[in-house]
Amino acid sequence: MDPTAYRALHESQMENNNGTTALNVFAHIAPPVFSVFHTVQLVVVAGVTHIPLRFLIEFSFVIVPFILLVTVLHPMALNITLTLLVLSAISAVHQMRYRLHLVPFVQVPGKSPQFLTCVRALVNLTTAVCILAVDFHCFPRELAKTETFGYGLMDIGVGLYVFSNGIVYKVRAPEEKRLTGARVWKVLFGTAPLLLLGFARFFLTNELDYQLHVSEYGVHWNFFITLAFVKLTGTLIMDVVRDPEVIKFVAITLLCCHEMMLHLGVSRYVLSTDTQRTTFVAANREGIVSLPGYLALFLASVYIGWVVRPSEEITLAKKFLRRAIKIALIAAVCWKMIYVCEGMFGISRRLANMGYCFWILAIGSSVTALCMLFELFVYFVRFEEPKSPDQIMKTDDFCIPYVPLVLQAINANGLFFFLIANVLTGLVNLVFQTFLLGTAAALTIIAYYMLMLCVAVTFLYVNKVKLKIW
Hints:
The protein is mainly alpha-helical. The chain has helices at 3-12, 22-29, 31-46, 51-69, 77-96, 114-133, 156-166, 181-207, 223-241, 244-271, 280-283, 285-289, 291-308, 317-344, 354-381, 389-394, 405-412, 414-431, 439-462; strands at residues 107-109, 314-316. 67% of the residues lie in helices and 1% in strands. The mean pLDDT is 87.
């Protein structure tokens, strides 16, 4: 097909999409969590220690099924999720039933909780698969980004990135100095790489005449610029407030003010097709107007991270379970708020409105709760004897590295993984007219692309190379 005609076809595929349901989107996100659960069981039972073999097993049982789930197995997503849930529950109960007498003594390490590694890596993995898969016909259009309102699997990418960075934000100690010029400069310096990536992406897409849907962020704006703003402003606000119990009220207040401004006419300005993109603000109105929503989402995620992340060296199972239940209750409230907001305001990634923020918090909190229960299960079934903090300091075997190697590798170099995914996605779209390819060719390309990505980050991780900006 002629390149100009193909570009028009490609962009038309991204228009007028009203999405699917919140349940259907979650049914595509939850299965990887259960896949991780069963893959870990398989690796432990088989006693696999050879790194290349372990990598192949994990790639085959975690990543390949997800590729199939968002393409050819899409109609069966809910059935697959329910089946995996039942199988996981049966497996967990079967392994736990003979160890009930150990309940009061089970301990979970408090430092660097692995469930956060799992959550962040799964966010990266989901995004990497979808940004390429969406360019093929075998990816269902209802899961692509929505035009204005609705639920789409592709809509959660930027929101979950903000969430995954918020839950690992380390609140500064009260005794540290308040906001100073040096601190502001340090934060600005840390934000600069994201801004440079944003500018680089804009210039490259312009030079290569790459297909771009301007209603996503605007003409010049993009994902990296939004992340840079959230990092800069969110960090400065946290330096001023510091108390996570207070920051949740700041997040709620900011979100309410954002929604009020949208209803006072800002949303009409952003969504109007009659508004010409003649000025910088008008040209990038989606990216600029959505910033308060993403900032509120980040601050709420910081509070959630503070709730789930232990501060002590040893966490007893009972206390860890209470945290998991608390985050599950937060998720339940957010799921309820989604349907309240849907009837009142709608769900819009383009505006990052209240409904969208609650949707992302509901998904993020649900996945976090599942990963916390998984971590508790691992330490429950592999518990040997109680250890004191002194014993823990003298030994390295208290922490059980249950997270799959490939997910640890993705999390260790998350931004690098995402950058390479974007570069390879661009290359695939420049070499192939992806929408004209058949299902078999599409699956082959996506699988090979993911294999290259995972091999690259695993190689870096095994060799202890860390390329990290945020």
